[in-house]
Amino acid sequence: QSVLTQPPSVSGAPGQRVTISCTGTSSNIGAGYDVHWYQQAPGTAPKLLIYGTNNRPSGVPDRFSGSKSGTSASLAITGLQAEDEADYYCQAYDSSLSGSYVFGGGTRVTVL
Amino acid sequence: EVQLVESGGGLVQPGGSLRLSCAVSGFTFSSYWMSWVRQAPGKGLEWVANIKHDGSDKYYVESVKGRFTISRDNAKDSLYLQMNSLRAEDTAVYYCARSEYHSFNYWGQGTLVTVSS
């Protein structure tokens, strides 16, 4: 059971907008810590997609955006493309255990 | 170009030991916190341990405390994970990752550790 809760899967047609939720608690997202998102294509290492809740590293398309409110965060993908089919993970720092980082269970995005 | 290359994975019996290494290049290794993150087969990501720039602070996920030790050699631009008393549930791909602002902004390709008799 992951500390951060994500839906197991979401799907959408090419060009559509999909969102992935990430629900935490008062010791991680609710404590004000930034949320980060990773994309993992099959058989590859994770790649940082969004850092600091809503910032994109160089090279990440602006179709990807992040937001946060209270104890939850969201990743939105607009203009869904076939290449976006992957697993997505949220991550945050958790103050309940010293130096601890927590991940969501991951969400598989399927492009129909 | 930032590169992280893990090595040292393999098949080990329950109760055995293994030492993972991560060689980095393309950035000033001694300026960054570094972490190990693992992924069991077909499962999600789990942070395992991290270490401060100079090695003075180290943190671990509860399930590996007392069994795993993270270390680094800044002169060799290398990160290590000594894993003792290995259990079946430690079976996973282990990634080294560079930490920045509480995120993991660069990852290696991973090394597979299989604990089985």
List keywords for this structure.
heterodimer, A: 112 residues, mainly beta, six-stranded mixed sheet, three-stranded antiparallel sheet, 9 strands, B: 117 residues, seven-stranded mixed sheet, four-stranded antiparallel sheet, 54% strand
Descriptive report:
- The complex is a heterodimer of chains A (112) and B (117).
- Chain A is mostly beta strands.
- Chain A has no helices and nine strands.
- Chain A has strands at 9-12, 18-23, 35-40, 47-50, 64-69, 72-77, 86-94, 100-103, 107-111.
- In chain A, strands 1, 3, 4, 7, 8 and 9 form a six-stranded mixed beta sheet that branches.
- Chain A is globular.
- The mean pLDDT of chain A is 95.
- Helix content of chain B is 0%, strand content 54%.
- Chain B has no helices and eleven strands.
- Chain B has strands spanning 3-7, 10-12, 18-25, 34-39, 45-51, 58-60, 68-73, 78-83, 92-100, 103-107, 111-115.
- In chain B, strands 2, 4, 5, 6, 9, 10 and 11 form a seven-stranded mixed beta sheet that branches.
- Chain B is globular and about 40 Å long.
- The chains are: A mainly beta (112), B mainly beta (117).
- At the A-B interface, strand 7 and strand 8 of A face strand 5 and strand 10 of B.
Through-space gap between termini of chain B? 40 Å
Sheet having the most strands of chain B: 7 strands, mixed
SSE ordering of chain A:
EEEEEEEEE
Structural class of chain B: mainly beta
Number of helices of chain A: 0
Beta percentage of chain A is 35-45%
Low-confidence stretches of chain A: none
Strand content of chain B: over 45%
| Proportion of residues in helical segments of chain A | under 10%
In angstroms, what separates the terminal alpha carbons of chain A? 28 Å
| Helix percentage range of chain B | under 10%
User: What's the total number of strands of chain B?
Assistant: 11
Structural class of chain A: mainly beta
Our count of helices of chain B gives: 0
Number of DSSP strand runs of chain A: 9
Unreliable sequence segments of chain B: none
Question: What is the 3D form of chain A?
Answer: globular
**Subunit arrangement of the protein:** heterodimer
Considering residues with a beta carbon less than 8 A from a beta carbon on another chain, report the largest interface and each chain's count.
A-B, 26 and 24 residues
Kindly state the mean pLDDT of chain A as a whole number? 95
